[in-house]
Design a protein that fits this description.
Largest sheet: 4 strands, antiparallel
Structural class: alpha+beta
Oligomer: single chain
Number of strands: 11
CATH class of the largest domain: Mainly Beta
Radius of gyration: 25 Å
Shape: globular
Number of helices: 3
CATH superfamily of the largest domain: C2 domain
Strand content: 35-45%
Helix content: 10-25%
Distance between the termini: 87 Å
Order of helices and strands: EEEEEEEEEHHEEH
Length: 227
């Protein structure tokens, strides 16, 4: 006999809009890929002996960065390179390609590399990841991490911004003496191109919002040179 009868209440209708769970956060659309370190377990530089003189190339979704270590030996080698990757659609992927070269006086040797592809099925690789490769020259594991990139708010002192802009202006050709207002404008424009938006400005500080660590690096390098 059925547990219900003609008078049992009917099932509630599904919520409008396809029944999605409104309590779930929206899907991440921008990821941060950080190359943390090499863990090298074996090297062999042939008859020359010693450690390896290496140049590594990392490519993440078309963005290219290089890392040079002229004395790579067994052990942990910190890297600290960061990429930001847009993942606008469910079909988007994050692709990491690693290649390396050993720089020898007579001829260069290609070092082993690898390619990792992360998509929706793997949650775009979010978390701690590692890729390994080996040949007669080297055996290593590359440790990296993929996280959802969130915009952060950072305060940058006016003095640090002006010192940063002045330093960059020195490297331009035919740049004459400029005002503090022009230097501030140049500095903020460079930050804008780096993905940082100006939220608020005072006589002493700028409040910026964006991805990455550029304002912090500027403050660390130029903060002591306040005008």
């Amino acid at each position: 006999m059925s547990d219900c009868c003609c008078c049992c209440p009917s099932e509630p209708p599904p919520p409008p809009g396809g029944g999605g769970d409104p309590t779930q956060p929206p899907r991440c659309t921008r990821y941060q890929v950080t190359i943390n370190s090499f863990s090298v377990t074996a090297i062999d530089d042939g008859f020359l002996g010693g450690d390896l003189e290496t140049t590594w190339t990392f490519v993440v979704n078309g963005q290219v960065r290089t890392f040079i270590d002229k004395d790579m030996g067994v052990g942990i080698t910190p890297v600290g390179i960061t990429f930001f990757v847009d993942v606008p659609a469910d079909t988007s992927t994050i692709v990491l390609q690693v290649t390396g070269v050993e720089d020898d006086p007579l001829f260069d040797d290609d070092l082993p590399g690898f390619t990792h592809v992360w998509g929706q099925a793997q949650n775009w690789g979010a978390g701690a990841q590692a890729g390994s490769a080996s040949d007669s020259n080297i055996t290593y594991t590359l440790n990296y991490q993929i996280t959802c990139a969130g915009r952060s708010a950072v305060s940058l002192s006016r003095g640090a911004l002006l010192a940063y802009a002045a330093d960059k202006a020195k490297k331009r050709k035919k740049v004459r003496r400029v005002t503090a207002a022009t230097l501030a404008s140049w500095g903020l424009e460079r930050l804008r191109r780096g993905g940082w938006d100006l939220v608020q400005a005072t006589d002493r500080d700028y409040l910026l919002k964006g991805y990455g660590t550029l304002p912090r690096l500027i403050e660390d390098k130029y903060g002591e040179k306040q005008t």
